[in-house]
Design a protein that fits this description.
196 residues, Arc Repressor Mutant, subunit A
């Protein structure tokens, strides 16, 4: 049973219910009508804030990219090395699975300037870490390093979220530590070296 919406922030209530649905059944099954029914508002109320299902998914993706960027910036500003930023990416994705699922389904999203701004902000943090290492002479091919770093952290996050790491027995048993963020740190350390 879902809590009915009574007053306050309808936009947030719709987003929260949408995130619950995405977590349970994926972004493709999202329905504005079903969300409205679940929170106890008219079937047209969510359209007032989001326009369409794709508009709602775009708002979720924008919120997700902003959250990811905030996590990456906080890690960097607290003195974290590029490797730590990569671990923060994995941690954000695995603790925000519904956002992460929507963020990387461009065929379900609108061409939206806020989404572009948010995704570029997150990606700039990854690119910035590689550029800093390149300026120090630690990387010769910055473009390839960005692709390699993003592939590693995004792939690991996706493998964890889809249960493939667990099914392949790569989070327990064969490896000493089942923590996916520790695994991210060790794997990224192989690619980019230790933070020290």
């Amino acid at each position: 049973m879902h809590a009915s919406y009574h007053h306050g922030d309808l936009r947030r209530a719709v987003l929260d219910e949408a995130l619950r649905v995405v977590s349970a059944t994926g972004p493709e099954s999202l329905s504005l009508r079903a969300i409205a029914a679940a929170i106890g508002v008219s079937h047209t109320a969510p359209r007032h804030h989001f326009g369409s299902r794709d508009g709602l998914l775009t708002a979720i993706a924008t919120e997700g990219f902003d959250g990811l960027a905030d996590a990456l910036v906080a890690t960097r500003e607290s003195g974290g090395a590029f490797l730590d930023v990569g671990v923060a990416y994995v941690e954000y994705g695995t603790t925000h699975p519904a956002h992460f699922a929507v963020m990387f389904t461009p065929d379900l999203l609108l061409d939206d300037p806020e989404l572009t701004r948010a995704s570029e902000r997150a990606f700039d943090e990854l690119r910035g870490g590689v550029e800093a290492m390149s300026a120090n002479g630690r990387i010769e091919d910055a473009h390839a390093a960005v692709v390699a770093g993003w592939s590693l952290v995004h792939g690991l996050t996706t493998l964890a979220l889809t249960g493939n790491l667990e099914r392949a027995d790569l989070t327990s048993g064969r490896l000493p530590d089942p923590d996916v963020t520790d695994l991210a740190r060790r794997a990224a350390g192989m690619l980019f070296g230790s933070p020290t």
